Amino acid sequence: MPKSRIRKKADFTPPAAKQAQAIKLNSRAWVAPVMLAMFVIGLAWIVVFYVTDGSLPIDALDNWNIVVGFGFIAAGFGVSTQWK
Known about the structure:
By secondary structure, the chain is mainly α. About 45% of the residues lie in helices and about 0% in strands. The chain contains 2 helices and no strands. α1 (about 30-50) runs antiparallel to α2 (about 65-80).
């Protein structure tokens, strides 16, 4: 019986390693300070409202002061989407 031919497989050569590229963080410089300021203003607004039993920051808004405080916090989250 004839001997079958043995097919020789090519040796595996791994692909050339790619050079690691530096990641450029082109974050706008104003984003972080504005984001943190919105968070702090919103938190301070709500805390002042509760500590003063509703007489401050704006007495005419009554319980809507909580909405204003959370609005500042939501705006901070909105600004945080611009951070890279």
